[in-house]
Amino acid sequence: MTPIVSIRNLTKTYGNGFQALKGVDLEIKRGEILALLGPNGAGKTTLISIVCGLVNPSGGQVLVGGHDVVREFRKTRALIGLVPQELTTDQFETVWNTVTFSRGLHGKPANPARIESILKDLSLLDKRDSMLRELSGGMKRRVLIAKALAHEPEILFLDEPTAGVDVTLRRDMWQVVERLRKTGVTVILTTHYIEEAEEIADRVGVINGGELLLVENKAALMKKLGRKELRLELAEPLGALPSGLDSYHVTLAEDGGALIYEYQGEAEQGRIATLLGSLAAQGIEFRDLSTRQSSLEDIFVELVGQRS
Asked: What is the pTM of this model?
């Protein structure tokens, strides 16, 4: 299937010499939810801005729906809805007029039923006649999302969409995202809330220092890079790690009261029984055990730390 967004060797160097993107290659599938993770200054917003036609690249090519974002700006921009980080709204306009005007800007005919449906989905219908200056920050964020959806885009970019907003909006927005995905809309989001990416994304990309470190199916990424930990609470504390356990990557807790076995993948998991047998042979008893699996946040922190 032809990707809806195709990025090839994308670079961006600003006038002050800062290289924000360094040869990024990325293909985004139609109808998927892709989460882009990265620390501040990693290049996430620059990447989105170039795809949306707001910033010109220094090199490389970006195709949206098969159209070049530089040469065919109008065609590509019509396919895209963007929710920026900043709250950029006309403070003296009503919610209804703002969202309706955004639809008209993209050349779409008036469709009050569509606007009403969007406002209802985002719990904004009762604010339709309110001026934006009267709204809270969270409500203004909802209006930005409504504006981005007004012209029925095929691709929706969400740049830190839930930064500084309440839990209710976060829940409402992810429900809207899921409904959009079911209608075939492609969603690309950047977020500092890694647990959100872990919950809703199909694929995860990690960007740092202008380089795309990886793009993986979420489940495959967790399986390949995720680690598990088995913690054995000992019946009696130990003063030192027992001999013969070096090959198991076992460590002794600081207080000597627990043994910790870290493993990765099914092959290492199969050695747990052998480890327990070794402990039994040495007369080491445990009173409890627990397991922990690394989260997407753990993987992200490790990847970014390796490149910093």
From this structure: 0.73
CA dist 219 → 84, 223, 299 (Å)? 28, 6, 12
Kindly report, residue by residue over 204-237, the tens digit of the pLDDT.
Answer: 888 888 999 888 887 776 666 556 778 888 888 8
Tokens of 18: 């800062």
Region 82-94: mean pLDDT is 80
Helices (H), 52-166: 73-78, 95-105, 112-121, 137-149
User: Within 10 A of 34 (CB to CB), how many other CB atoms are there?
Assistant: 22
Helix (H, G, I), strand (E, B) or coil at 250: strand
Distance CA 256, CA 156 (A): 52
**Side-chain-facing half-sphere of 150: CA atoms under 13 Å:** 28
Measured CA to CA, the distance from residue 175 to residue 177 in angstroms comes to 5
Strand partners, 104: none
Residue 14 to residue 101: CA distance in whole angstroms = 33
SS3 163: coil
Average pLDDT of the chain to the nearest whole number: 84
43 and 118 Cβ atoms separated by less than 8 Å: no
Encoded amino acid at 214, one letter: L
Beta carbons within 8 Å of 9's beta carbon, 6+ residues apart: 23, 24, 25, 59, 60, 61
Cα distances (angstroms) measured from residue 38 to each of 42, 117, 153: 6, 33, 25
Structural domains in the chain, CATH included, are 5-223 (3.40.50.300), 226-294 (3.30.70)
Which tokens hold the place of 304? 């970014």
pLDDT tens for each residue of 113-165 = 999 999 998 889 999 999 999 988 878 888 988 999 999 999 999 887 766 66
How far is residue 220's CA from residue 202's CA, in Å, rounded to a whole number? Answer: 10
